[in-house]
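Review box. Two proteins, two foldings.
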Amino acid sequence: MRKLTFILFWVLSMLLTTVNAQIVDTTIAHQFSNYLTNNLQEKMYVHTDKESYLAGEMIWFKLYTVEAYTNRPINLSKIAYVELLDSENKAVLQAKIVMEGGNGNGYFYLPLSLRSGNFVLRTYTNWMKNFDVNYFFHKQLTIYNTLKADPPAIPSATITTPAIQFFPEGGNLVSGLISKIAFKAVDASGKPLQFKGAITDSRNDTLVKFSPQQFGLGSFYFKPQDHINYSICIQPMAGKPFYATLPKIFAVGTVMSIKADGDSVLKISIQDNQHQDQYGILFVHSGRKVVFSKRITAIDIATGISISKDLLGDGITHFTLFNTDLEPICERLYFKKPNSLLAVTISAKQKEFSTREKIALFINQTQQGKPIATNFSIAVYQADSVEHLNDITSSLWLTSELKGKIDYPEWYLKNAASEATDLLMLTHGWRRFEWKHILKGPSGNLLYQPEIVGQIISGQISGSTQRSSLASSSVYLSIPGKNYSFYTTPIGNDGNFIFFTKYFYGRKKIIVQADPRVDSLGKITLRSPYVSQFSDYRLPTFHNNYEAQKLIDRSVAMQVHNAFNANHLKRETTVSIDTTVFYYKADKSYLLDDYVRFPKMEEVLREYVFEVSIIKRNKNYYLNTFDIGSQKFLESSPLILVDGLPLFDDGNALMMKDPKTIKKLAIVASRYANGNDKFEGILDLQTYAGDLNGTSIPTHALQLDYEGLQINRAFYAPMYDGDVSMLTRLADFRSTLFWSPNNTTKNDGKATISFFSSDFEGNYVVVVQSLSPNGGTGTGYANFKVLKKN
């Protein structure tokens, strides 16, 4: 009987354990799915027309926005922010770029005031500001200024010393457990370091010798003991030796490692020195896909766990080991080379061309051998001695998913063996979230909304003496002009406000104000849409490696090109503007030139604007509009606008306007609701120039010049076919022959691009960056020469 009772108890315990394991596993997967659903993440790539520039040249760029885990184009954010940062993270240039269908393009003119140096091109969206700044796109660009002296060399006292970092596989070193330890070593300039290293104990016995395999990366196996002091000596191939230390060694803990078991299987090994009866959960995911979720048993500890590589998605897979309290204790990244990359080929009928000759390039793109429709950008420029190419494939699959600077990322996708790629995973481990944020459920702390229509302009009113009244009122944004914009939005209890605007381009005067009848003392400030935090991205020390004579030749050519083609270079593309007013349609409109021109506004309104009633009491005017629906005048004054600027004084300021400055008067003759605001009709006056024409701006209002969206420029590439300019003596000194950000291949995967060479001889590079609707990425390169005509 006792034996039977014991057996039943054991079976019941096993069932409860199984049920509990299922609940826990489901909880992790469910929370993981919820997090991804509620925290959609964008990722960006920027293709620039080249990698190095002269001050005075133009940077042309194409922006691609994709969903972070699938690399598929995403049409969420309609605005992207692009910044050029110097070595001190100061923004020297900034722009707001319109995005459509996940694509956008723009330019920066590099002013002659810039000094030579390395710069960072940084790009992000408003939605991306909710997450780590390391997720922003970063790209190094080199700029030379031949008209300014190079910056002084960095004093030796500020040059960093060689350094090495150690990364235990899984995360921690545990006493008595064998760990694979990866390392990354760099020299004083941040470049990969070649060296020989050794670990010795307190008796000076050498325990391990090691050296890097590629790009300063390598690994070794080591069984640490927490009661022993270890010394690590690093002897560079050139330079003085230095010492380093291992990461902290824990007395108790768990170690997880992953090895290939043949070509198709991964073997996960778990070591533990805590001798516990229960173990945690191994959770494996590739992007959004949950690959594996299992409670670890004693058998798993003894024999390991096998997972087929076929189950893994392309790119990075995360292996996370949780303890019984659902705390992540070990994590490992594994990379599976994508098998669906785009093959991009670029061909021409010849390899050499004369100056001012037509060049036709034939683009062919396939995915797994089949033609595919894609969106691609193309640049053709004179080959440079300074190249740090950044392609879309290595960016979206590697550099955007790993922390820190990766040397030659494209090499890992083209030539690297799996062992080399695995070292990269061990030394740059990272993920796009914190497990604590996932397991505790939605936090609701996302501060920044996606800009799905136009710019979001936000700010705060502070110093108000009537906070309670102000919190229940509104703030007003006016963008005067012939096609003005007017917005209202409520003020929060903390004084914050947000305007959701439509597209507006170029530098505009904007006016923000609260209703002075509620509060006229509050100070209004607007927040910059640009981020003031910076990532771990570090620029290398600038060295002028450009051949002096070539640099001078290129500079002279650039100056000649700018001088003689200024009109072409400044040509802006056409921008479509929404001319619809916020109230959509007026009930009655008056073009004042069609009527007798009276000298006073009071006479205009009394003589023929019958929808407006004027009452004058104690020298103050009060206006009312006639409600079409109720057939009577409304009780309060209407919203009075002049070129989009509201006048909150019941009509007194309007009566002071010279009617000769007013072109049009429109009336909404009924109550009108705009957000939380309800207006007793609208009286909308527009001047001839849309510039307020002397209308006084209230002293309590914030008035400033605000940079709207960038109006793009057309890339200038002369076409010499049948053009008299073919015979002109005017030199054509373009070093960038062609730039086209928006191109497509049809279903046959083919496209043809044509342009003309310039008078600039030399070697030229063609670069194509391509993205397909299913997230396929590809880069193509080609070369040709331009020689003078015989």
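Next protein.
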Amino acid sequence: MSAPTRRRRWLTTCAITATAGLVAIPASAAPGTHGSSPFGARTLAQLAAERAQSVGAMSPKAKEDDGDDGNEADEIAEGADQYAEARTSPGIVAPGAYGAAWSSLTKLPSTGGSWRNVTDLPYNSDDSRYRDIDSNSSGGSGYVTGRMAAMAADDDGYAYAGSAGGGVWRSRGGGGHWKPISDRLPAQSTGALALDGGGRLWLGTGEATTNADAYLGSGVYVLSDPHHGTFSTRSRVGGDELESTTVHQLRFGGGKVWAATNEGVWSHSTKKLGGAWKLEYAPNPDYLPGGSKADDPSAPYKNITNDIAIDPKHPSKVVLAVGWRSGDDYNGFYTRANGTWTRISSGFGDLPTDADDVGNVTFARSADGSRYYAIDQSPEQLNTNPDSGLEGIYVSKSGSPSGPWTKIADYQGLAAAGSALTSPGYMPGVQAWYNQFLTVDPADPEHVYAGLEEVYETKDGGSSWSTVGPYWNFGFSCWSIDPAKQTGDCNPTTHSDQHGVAIGRYHGKSFVYVGNDGGVYKRPVNGSQDSSGHATDWTSLNDGTIDTLQYYSVGVGKDLDHGGVSVTGGLQDNGQSVLRSNDKVMGSNFGGDGGDTLTDPANGCNIAEEYVYLAVQVTQNCAVNDGSWITDPSKATSYGVAPADNATGEARFIAPLASDAKNSSTWIAGGRHVWVQTHGYAIRSGDEWKSVYDLGEGHTATAVAASGGKVYAAWCGPCNNQGFARGIAVGNADGTGWHDIALPATGADGTVPNRYLSGFAVDPKNADHVYLTVNGFSRQWTEGPGAGVGHVFESKDGGTTWKDISKNFPDVPADSAVVTPNGGLAVGTDLGVVYRAPGRSSWQRVGSLPAVAVLQLKLSPDGRTLYAATHGRGIYTINVRDCD
């Protein structure tokens, strides 16, 4: 599949064991070829074909012995697992690990200085400057930010947005001018937001989309004055029963709050907030923490619950939607009969009750109690239907969740209602396990908004539907790449992949707020539509005051055109951002999922961007283009230059990519092989890469670094907890001197643990002096062979021997490191940045970032500024001298 086809990824199976990573469609064929039609498979045709190949292969884990047989499902499963594998292997992480790590981190002494957010300004995904072949500009999403998992709104103009990894935000003016209100919590991942009848705001932490960069939470919190207050650890409800869980929904009824979690359904009084949560129902309690099967690799999938429906007229009548979205025997609907929770097997009407047809489910009820609605994703459809995993949308006109239920929509009907997803193999609901929301207009029980990949609306109880928020505008007759227009003659739409929804009022007018992979959008509840049923009045609320961008990487280079520096980085589902020194708005020069990034320190418009699986694009003008490549392919300004491991599937989802610290024209890439190319940003073909070392069958690189021609490569394989193994190879960029480093298999004390090796930092003064960061948790939390202790190791002999220098380093996954010009060492972790000053052995906390993962650290070209790519709060900087 060519580079233009790489944009949209769809998500299938993944792990949710501790933290879990996202997945994307890999660019598995010649990524450097330029398609003949505008945006190629941005119309989704190629994705549809690949989706068709993948059905029937859904399972919680990719099999280790499954080679690259052309079935993309294995590749997607591997990509989904990567984020979790890095943090859980070689075993299973016990609950409470992140809470303990946060406590340890906050007790460290702090350095001087404070962090500055450099991406807290609007990010325009349709920036007309960047309409090159690998961009999605003109798709119609407009201003974007990071993934929003949940929304809430009231009738006083207050809106609340819960992000996937950047906490909860409040707007006082109907959207926009946002302020963070959960920064003091040890978990910044949102699962659910809900306002109760008394106006209190409830927060369930731990995103429950079961995609692979969804972090576990620290419980449920309540804010009694959401208009003015902020969440604190003192506002947690109950004890630690919901520590290290994900919360899918919070529902109210009968004086209780009900929580649907990945560890069953729990309830708590809404009046007395102390005391323990009550476990109402778990289908397989032996797999819960403390149970006899808690250590089983399948334990994370055995007690997943999705929603709770409470009969408004009879609050004691409750229906639970329970089940793992890829399928399990316990999947189904449950209600209480004679004091026992019992599976519903009949009398439900059209809504299926068979385990094969009940997966991820969302409920919504009307304000007057006359209607209940439901979306159901089917494991059977997910596994066998290449077009969609959606079973349907349903209504109970009795107003009771007990039904009877009537189907009011299926994927074919939604596709015919103005959808952008009309290609076989990629139709509405293809990601229904990941994309779901549902709400009812408080003023009209037949006016419903439903979210899947797109936003749908019905005003007649489901008799007819409109796609008011299409996936994008590509493929519509109104679309044009004309840089004088945002998206031709089409109206702006929302970003794709819907997760949260709320209806509120501002200045007496009702608005619907939707949260998706691109942030927050709103429109009037009774808004306008064009002749195709597409809304004409969406407004992006991602005004730059809300920065929840989920970066994997950051690159910094001199801005030769304007002075200062240019800052770029790869993002989850929001391509790559580029911020030049004179910009008031960031632009997006590459689409899809952005992975690792290389930026020439001497010229910030020399950029290499990794998509996934080592699909690398390179540009030497920041990918500035007015779209003229459509009629003249020679005018394209970016080029696909993937090494061969991209085509064979032998690279990690986010694979390591680095340039030599002494020579920016020498690049290192890691898959099964260690690849080197020496043409720098002038590279134009993947054939220019040379394999200098084979890490071995079943092994794949997790980190690479080079300085002065000396190369370090870390690998894993198998990379999950079923026989996890890791290693280090060292050699030269010219292919000579390669050898494997002997590492103890058991990770004995003082030696490198048998955990995921995440990064290297080479001393710029001595290539034999190198530091290693280790992900995951120590054996105190990880029940796996050789988990060992320590997160930072040092070698002074080129990697032959290593010394644990962790000392008071918190027991938290370490992701990246950089040696500062004065000889200090900065390390990015899942909860912030720590620093060891030169000549010292103990660690300090750098500034006071929220509890957000810092996946990569880089220095400015002059070495004076440290840049931190966070996975949920954008890119931050701090002066290096302030760390001492």
